[in-house]
Amino acid sequence: MPKIVLREIVRQHAEMAAFLWTVYDHHLLHPNENPDMDEERLARLVERLDAHIDGLRVAGEAGQKIAEEVYAEYPEAGELFVLRMLQTGAPRTIGELDVEKVRAYLAANGV
């Protein structure tokens, strides 16, 4: 049976993952800027980010294509991050990332 993909839902996964990555990375760079971002809220943010990326992975090739379309429309760091997380060999969770390597990758690729 072929996989049914709801394009708008998958697109929302791509958009939200990109947005949440930028929020997460900004917090890591400026931890004292938002006093409301405590450990619990940060953990929830990471959990949501992981879930959106998983949603794209579950969609398979369609998820990859939609993430590429979103990046083509908005060639920003968050959207490129999402594409990188969908590549073969990418870490499965945000907790497995080396954030400095991610930033270097994004900078080397023009965002």
Briefly characterize the structure.
The chain is mainly alpha-helical and 111 residues long. Helix content is 68%, strand content 0%.
Write a structural description:
There is one protein chain. The chain is globular, with a radius of gyration of 14 Å. It has helices at about 5-30, 40-60, 60-75, 75-85, 100-110. Helix 1 packs across helix 3 (about 60-75), helix 1 (about 5-30) crosses helix 4 and helix 2 crosses helix 3. With about 110 residues, the protein is mainly alpha-helical. The N and C termini lie far apart (about 40 Å). The chain has five helices and no strands.
Distance between the termini: 39 Å
Based on CA inertia axes, which overall geometry fits?
A: globular
- Number of alpha- plus pi-helical segments: 5
Helix content: 55-70%
Main sheet?
none
How many strands appear in the DSSP assignment?
0
What class do helices, strands and sheet pairing give? mainly alpha
Strand content: under 5%
Low-confidence region ranges: none
Order of helices and strands: HHHHH
Mean pLDDT, to the nearest integer, reads: 95
Radius of gyration: 14 Å
Specify the oligomeric state: single chain
